[in-house]
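Example record

Each entry pairs one chain with its bound ligand, N,N-dimethyl-L-histidine.
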Amino acid sequence: MSVPYAQLRVSDWRPPREPLVADLLRGLRETPKHISPSYFYDARGSQLFDAICELPEYYLTRTETRILAAHAADIARCIGDDALLVEFGSGASTKTHLLLDQLPHLSAYVPVEISRSHLLDAAQRISKTYPRLEVLPVCADFTMPFELPKSQRVPARTVVFFPGSTIGNFEPASGIELMRLMRSLAGPNAGLVIGTDLVKEVGVLSRAYNDGAGVTAQFNLNLLRRLNREFGADFDLGAFAHEAIWNAAEARIEMHLISARRQTLSLAGERIEFAAGERLVTEHSHKYTLAGFHAQSAAAGWHACEAWLDERRYFAVHYLSSS
Ligand code: AVI
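Structure tokens for the complex follow.
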């Protein structure tokens, strides 16, 4: 039996459209031009990201899933009984099952996701699989303040789950800001289970973001399609090429869209000039050392308790505590 959406109590914290347009135009006026990677995730972008996670070159999802599967019992022990589990950017909540299977006494599960369709589909699936678990979906941009819904059973503590190395898509200062927001949202005696992609051989990193089948290129270009459809822009998708490069100084992969020619475009009535070869930066994906990540999380008030790595040391899942 499926749980109709109507039975899910959804909290809505979706941002109004106006600041999004202003934010896009601000990035397109700067040098280099840039757009936040949060705009990747319309319905098609989310599907393309799911396809990326299946690619042979994109080791991140598979590696993190293996770590979570191997250490789920240890992670559940860190989380403890009666916790409120809050997943930031929950998407399809695919990795969550690995933890939920080990956490029969959670107070409630709170998936937080900007894409309403993804959020509701996932919340419905989780409710069906775990009928005794209270599922309280929150539709929100998790970088903006929002409140946690009240669960029927008072939680012993709140633990944030932030897998996928999505923290790497934030500039270091914004990542610290986000982890501070998590800490204040979660209150005293909180926990954070967070995945980070680790610095490794450049060839492995480069192939993960320049895959042979061109799915990452489609994902990158879909951003322009979204701007055309939702923000009245007129990008010619054929006049931009995808490239992902490794920036060693900043320890990050940068995704770019390169203008094939000189061109003038418009977005929300404003003209935007591109020179031939000019790059639009669409994403930074930072890679970490354990010490580097511990320093960043400490700056946000989190103490490193445990880290679980795969045998190649490609990826780490950390458990951090606020006390
Ligand atoms: C969501 N995020 C962690 C992905 C990453 O690897 O930075 C997004 C992505 N971009 C290109 N491929 C995947």
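The longest strand covers residues 240-247.
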